[in-house]
Amino acid sequence: xFTDAGYAAVTIDGQLSEDERKRRVAALxxxxxxxxxxxxxxxxxxxxxxxxxxxxxxxxxxxxxxxxQVGRALRPKPDGSKxxxxxxxxxxxxxxxxxxxxxxxxxxxxxxxxxxTPTTCKVCFGTxxxxxxxxxxxCPQNREVEKRDAPEYVAGALEDVNKEALKAMRKAELKAAxxxxxxxxxxxxxxYRYPE
Length: 196
What we know:
Layout: E1 9-11, H1 18-30, E2 35-37, E3 53-56, H2 63-71, E4 84-87, H3 91-95, E5 118-120, E6 127-129, H4 163-176, H5 180-189
Parallel strand pairs: 1-2, 3-4
Antiparallel strand pairs: 5-6
């Protein structure tokens, strides 16, 4: 879609050679590319100061992953320009603006011990633990790859979000919650430690 609109854009993915990925990243750094897309490849530990914007298309409940994703564009620029963050999945509503202060703590939530429950395969009736896929190598289910449809494009309007706008959005969400269950669900969607 970007190239059809006249932008110099490419994608990088795990099927490209390491040399080709490096070549494409270097082309972005040199200004030969305007847009570089990826999925889970440059979310963390990727430092390229020329990045001026990010488009978030992956929702996350992880504050640290969100901060790393937007951090790609938050590096100080020699010209003092600001980052552009297009959030199409509501991460800013869950985690706040990337420049908001966060109270960090080392005493996080206690982790629950994960119980492994048996699952019976619907194809070969074999039993596996801790997942929905069959554990048997010879099961026909393991050879079938489910094809997904391409995502549907939906027209929309972008809004400039600042602290006041975010506060108003959060207030509107809170006002829309009419029951206790809706309030708890809202707290969970915002990643509150104790949504109840």
